UniProtKB/TrEMBL annotation:
Residues involved in heme binding: 459
Lineage of the species this protein comes from: Eukaryota, Fungi, Dikarya, Basidiomycota, Agaricomycotina
An annotated Gene Ontology molecular function: iron ion binding
Keywords noted in UniProt: Heme, Iron, Metal-binding, Monooxygenase, Oxidoreductase
Family membership: Belongs to the cytochrome P450 family.
InterPro entries with a match to the protein in the record: Cyt_P450, Cyt_P450_CS, Cyt_P450_E_grp-I, Cyt_P450_sf, Cytochrome_P450_fung
Domain of life: Eukaryota
Gene3D superfamilies in UniProt: Cytochrome P450
Protein's recorded name: Cytochrome P450
UniProt pathway annotation: Secondary metabolite biosynthesis
CDD domains per UniProt: CYP64-like
Essential cofactor(s): heme
Pfam families reported in the protein's UniProt record: p450
Length: 538
């Protein structure tokens, strides 16, 4: 879920109608539910575009790709890399530089680790127990501790076999169904997440758990980004019938609620019953249920367990799938980079085996490609919003309590000072050549320090995400050459130009890829490896 959107959508028509009837008796400040701003030293806000009375900058927001507008504003107003906006009575701070984001969100994390109210998701759609939505407090800390036990850099080593098995299974499907890569990519990435989280084995494309999770993730896009609907600004409007927003809104709200149930409550209840019956396979959910069970059989912290487990798919599997799709796009666009990566893999493996996660340190160019994929098309260009828990002063500027904090990931990842020629896909920017030795540079800005967030809300699943990405990339490069398909006349079938300049999370689903086995020996090695792989147990 992204963090910002157009505030000039049709949703605001009924809001303005209601306000026209009520503004004489109820102030905008009361509607917004925010305290009056206290600025005793009368410090200036950070610079930003001038808005209009009451609406502020609402009408200046673009309908899509708002991070591109943030970049333009940063050049025009953000000499300090901070942009101040105001939408009605909500203050918004856009951070466009890594240094400022790291300082404010990490060093001053005790002030900048809250979430905006996100009332539509939390109060109306039952997403209130998901970690990604939680305000900074006891439940947030509890769920972070729960998940960190399973996803820290050391813990993910226990998933090496599962990650490898599913990457090889994906590659084997490309022998027979190369045009279905997007579907199989999602299936096998989700298979890893479902096994880790719930002990559920995905065997088919139409797996019910995968389908439920995908529909739930898709339902959030109808209200993306979180925090931008009028209900988030004016809680009092929540007392009115949903039909004032239209039939489509009512339908989408039903889907969003059902998604919350299918992501957390439904699988949690099933695993809880299996634990009580003594038939639950080991998983994060079953282990947390057992750890939090009292002697009389009551399970403590149920809401936090179901919320922590439920968010793993939305926050992990979907974004990892998107990044791998972007990788495939880049390999077709830059065949010379693909050949260079394959040469590195061949030199190490000599065609005798497939790559494993133990090879990561020995393949620096592949590591550089992974970093460049994350940087070139970040899947969450403006992250999820933070919020301040108290007033703050920074470099002579005033940042009020309750300010929504937007980290402009896109602009940070395309900063020419850190990444020269930022629109070019160039893994060599991260590589240092020393004689016959190739290694990652130690003096570069690492995109992984940007795209996974900052401070106390940094993505808890970043290590499993990069492990899945690397293993999938390495396996496909070792066994296939990827290219654009050709028509009957032998001409490459390329998507429309807007596909390549898209800055959204997934490359368009219309993208087709041609997977050609690199050799008969590569196919045989893949088939033998997949057949010999034993069922993975955690």
């Amino acid at each position: 879920m992204s963090s910002f959107s157009s505030f000039s959508s049709s949703y605001w028509a009924p809001v303005l109608a209601v306000l026209s009837l009520l503004f004489l008796r109820i102030s905008l400040r009361t509607f917004g539910g925010q305290n009056s701003v206290s600025n005793p030293r009368r410090l200036p806000y950070p610079p930003g575009p001038r808005g209009i009375p009451i609406l502020g900058n609402a009408l200046q927001m673009p309908k899509k790709d708002h991070w591109l507008t943030f970049g333009k504003w940063a050049a025009e107003f953000g000499e300090r890399n901070l942009i101040h906006l105001k939408i009605l009575n909500r203050h918004i701070l856009v951070i466009t530089s890594y240094e400022d984001a790291e300082y404010l969100l990490s060093v001053r994390g005790s002030i900048y680790s809250d979430r905006p109210k996100l009332r539509l998701f939390r109060d109306h759609a039952n997403w209130d127990n998901f970690l990604i939505m939680l305000p900074y407090g006891s439940s947030f800390h509890l769920q972070r501790r729960m998940l960190n036990e399973y996803f820290n850099s050391s813990a993910i080593k226990r998933y090496t076999g599962l990650v490898t098995k599913n990457a090889q299974a994906l590659a084997s499907q490309m022998i027979f169904s190369p045009r279905k890569f997007p579907e199989f990519n999602r299936m096998f990435i989700v298979a890893t997440i479902m096994m880790i989280t719930y002990g559920h084995e995905v065997k088919r494309e139409d797996d019910e758990w995968v389908r439920d999770a995908e529909i739930a993730a898709r339902s959030t896009n109808n209200f993306a980004p979180a925090g931008s609907h009028p209900l988030d600004f004016f809680p009092i409007l929540g007392a009115l019938p949903y039909r004032i927003w239209g039939k489509t809104f009512v339908k989408h709200m039903e889907e969003l609620r059902k998604g919350a149930y299918n992501l957390s409550t439904k699988p949690y209840l099933l695993i809880r019953d299996r634990v009580k019956e003594g038939i639950a396979p080991y998983s994060i959910a079953s282990h947390l249920i057992e750890e939090n069970s009292s002697s009389d059989g009551e399970v403590l912290n149920e809401k936090d367990i179901s919320g922590a487990c439920g968010i793993i798919y939305v926050a992990g599997a979907d974004t990892t799938t998107a990044s791998i799709n972007t990788f495939i796009l880049t390999m077709m666009l830059y065949p010379e980079i693909q050949r260079k990566a394959q040469a590195e893999i061949d030199a190490l493996l000599q065609g005798e085996r497939l790559p494993t996660l133990h090879d990561r340190d020995a393949l620096p160019y592949l590591a550089a490609i992974l970093k460049e994929v994350l940087r070139w098309r970040p899947v969450a260009p403006s992250g999820m919003p933070h919020a301040t828990v108290e007033d703050d002063e920074y470099n002579g500027m005033f940042i009020p309590k309750g300010t929504m904090i937007i980290t402009d990931i896109w602009t940070m990842c395309h900063n020419p000072s850190d990444f020269p020629n930022p629109m070019e896909f160039d893994p060599d920017r991260f590589i240092e050549e020393g004689g016959s030795i190739r290694r990652l540079r130690a003096d570069f800005r690492d995109p992984e320090d940007i795209v996974f967030g900052f401070g106390r809300r940094i993505c808890v699943g970043q290590h499993i995400a990069t492990a899945q990405m690397w293993m999938t990339m390495a396996t496909l490069l070792a066994t296939f050459h990827t290219s654009f398909p050709k028509d009957k006349d032998g001409k490459k079938i390329r998507p429309p130009d807007d596909h390549f300049v898209a800055t959204s999370r997934h490359p368009k689903t219309a993208l087709q890829s041609n997977f050609v086995p690199r050799s008969e020996a590569a196919v045989k090695l893949l088939e033998e490896t997949v057949q010999s792989t034993e069922d993975w147990k955690m």
